[in-house]
Amino acid sequence: MTAQQFIPKPYTSSIENGSFTWSSPSNIALVKYWGKKENQIPENPSISFTLNDCKTTTRLSFSKKESADDFSFEVFLDDEKKDDFKPKIETFFKRIEAYLPFLKQYHFKIETTNTFPHSSGIASSASGMSALALCLMSVEKELVERDVTLSAVERSFEKDFFIQKASFLARLGSGSACRSLEGDLGVWGKHDAIDGSSDLFGVKYPFEVHENFKNYQDTILLVDKGEKQVSSTVGHNLMHGHPFAQERFKQADKNLTDIISILKSGDLDKFIKLVESEALTLHAMMMTSMPYFILMKPNTLEIINKIWVFRQKTGSKVCFTLDAGANVHVLYPENECEDVLEFIKSELVAYCQKGHYISDRIGFGAKLL
Ligand code: PMV
């Protein structure tokens, strides 16, 4: 696949108005994406668990407008107009216009809600951008299906192509968003061992996954609910000219090779080592860039240490991973739910801002509502 293949034939059909609603989840990377080339092409492949409960629901209403000279849209979060979201969406529209040439022909109303609080420190970009990309793809699907100048085959929009192009578009909104469309694991970035993997879009992880990982749990400890200290864009850019960048990209590639056999065998000890090392490496990259950042907070470290002690004392297979922030994702197998939740409540919640945490688990991707 090349980006060119996502450019549609000119539409000859027209729809006056309509609306589509999609919900799409967030995801948490096990092997992290950090560093990109031009046009949101990742420097290394990544893999993530798709989440179940942390999600965005977006309703996109569209109506044909007289002139097609500019983008026209309004954005609402929880029924409140959000003009401060507009620049990000305008940038997104500019990036995807060549692939969805109808964009300037319509006025859009984008109404979105998240299941998690906006100021939770959980990035809504993965769920938000994937939900919006899917709504836009539903519009394109309808335009193509109604196009009588196309052959029956051209008009029938293959489900695989729909998801692939939605992921391709989501990637142009926020890189990691392209892994959110399907579950239970998503891969993004070309990797030799994964047929069909691509730098252009995310794909569903195609190999066998051991029972141990079924319904894996992710409890997100909200250590710091503030705005991100470093935007993803700035963070990714700091990998340009970073002294350890090339080694890091190689390591991520190897970790992806290794996680394939770990996911197959169900070896939780190896899983823990790989996942925790990935999280700390991500933060090590930030600490060693110029300028440098420490995005962990003292409470992040307290939690990590408590997890290590608990694991040593009990033999539990609980582990942690981190995003580009201070919050901690506590990952554990379903059969440890009771014990780990008890441990979280008695020992870790004290380190969360206002005691807040979110219980989530592996999910299966986006849904048309
Ligand atoms: O999707 P972005 O550009 O916000 O980057 C996200 C990067 C990490 O969340 C830190 C890692 C990942 O692979 O999701």
Quick structural overview:
By secondary structure, the protein is of the alpha+beta class. 34% of the residues lie in helices and 22% in strands.
Largest sheet: 8 strands, mixed
Nearest-angstrom radius of gyration?
Answer: 21 Å
Ligand kinds: (3R)-3-hydroxy-3-methyl-5-(phosphonooxy)pentanoic acid
Q: Helical segment tally?
A: 9
| Uncertain ranges | none
Name the helicity range: 25-40%
Oligomer: single chain
Q: What is the distance, rounded to the nearest whole angstrom, between the alpha carbons of the first and last residues?
A: 29 Å
Mean pLDDT: 95
SSE series: EEEEEEHEHHHEEEHHHHEEHEE
Tell me the strand percentage band: 15-25%
Structural class: alpha+beta
How many runs of DSSP E, i.e. beta strands? 14
The general outline is globular
Description:
- By secondary structure, the protein is of the alpha+beta class.
- It contains nine helices and 14 strands.
- The strands form three sheets. Strands 1, 4, 5, 6, 7, 8, 9 and 14 form an eight-stranded mixed beta sheet that branches.
- Bound molecules: (3R)-3-hydroxy-3-methyl-5-(phosphonooxy)pentanoic acid.
- The site of (3R)-3-hydroxy-3-methyl-5-(phosphonooxy)pentanoic acid (PMV) has 14 residues, from loops.
